[in-house]
Amino acid sequence: LKQVFNKDKTFRPKRKFEPGTQRFELHKRAQASLNSGVDLKAAVQLPSGEDQNDWVAVHVVDFFNRINLIYGTICEFCTERSCPVMSGGPKYEYRWQDDLKYKKPTALPAPQYMNLLMDWIEMQINNEDIFPTRVGKCKEEVL
């Protein structure tokens, strides 16, 4: 388990919501509803009086954190040798393109693809223009 939390691995720490903020309260509400065995449709419904962009942002960050944790527990078993292709079964192969280093869709080993993907998602989440940390300041056209 120590290896999962090693900073040099692909696991990244959770992005935290500052206690006392409205986003922190939304996060607590989302966590409570997801852990209570409630209907998922009801759990993700926008609470009355809350900003839709803030609610979506909280769920996007929570989803990223959960995926990151799950990936962190399995990444040591998927090496470039054991997972030479990023695929979704025999019918689907995922290729990476970022218009920077990879200008064309490029086949990569699964661990390399996942590292690039998680870095890219983290950059999006940390981009203040897309996910501002102040409540109610989201750009409508982004979400």
Descriptive terms for the model:
143 residues; mainly alpha; two-stranded antiparallel sheet; 3% strand; elongated; disordered N terminus; transferase
Walkthrough of the structure:
InterPro entries: MOB_kinase_act_fam, MOB_kinase_act_sf. Zn(2+) binds at residues 78, 83. It comes from Horornis vulcanius. GO terms for molecular function: kinase activity. This is MOB3B kinase. The chain has 143 residues and is mostly helical. The protein has a single domain, classed as MOB kinase activator (Butyryl-CoA Dehydrogenase, subunit A, domain 3, Up-down Bundle), CATH 1.20.140. Helix content is 40%, strand content 3%. The protein is built from 4 helices and 2 strands, in the order αααββα. It has helices at 22-35, 40-43, 52-74, 110-125; strands spanning 95-96, 106-107. A two-stranded antiparallel ribbon has the order 1-2. Helix 1 packs across helix 3 and helix 3 packs antiparallel against helix 4 (110-125). The longest helix has 23 residues, at 52-74. The protein is elongated, with a radius of gyration of 17 Å. The model is unreliable at 1-13 (pLDDT under 50).
